[in-house]
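1st attempt posting a full record on here, be nice pls
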Amino acid sequence: MATIRKVSVLLAGFILLVFSIFVFNQTVQIVQSAKTVNPTFGNGVMWALILLYCALLLTPAAASRLGRSRIRPLHFRFQETPVAQLPAARRPRQHRDGDRNRTPIAGESC
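the predicted structure (as C-alpha cells):
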C-alpha cells in the first residue's frame, strides 16, 4: 500500500507541475498578445488574470470555512413522513378517474 501511495503522490505532483507550467505559458502568451494591442491593456489583462487565479485558488478555502449546509437534502426530508400523514396541501393529487398516465387499451378512447 505504501508503494501505491508514493506513486500516486508523485504522479499527482507531476500532473500539478505540468498543469502549472501550461497555465503560466498560456498566461504569458495572452498578456503578450494583449500588450501588442496596447501596453496599458496588456498590464490590465495581466492583473485581471492574476486576480482571477488568486480568486480561483482561494475559493476552496473560503468554501471550507462556510461549513456544511444546514438544510437537509430533499430525499432525506420527505422519506420520514408517509403520504397518509402529510397535510392535505402537501399530498400528491389523486384524480377521479384513477391513473391518468396509463396507456389506453386497444379500442379504448381516452
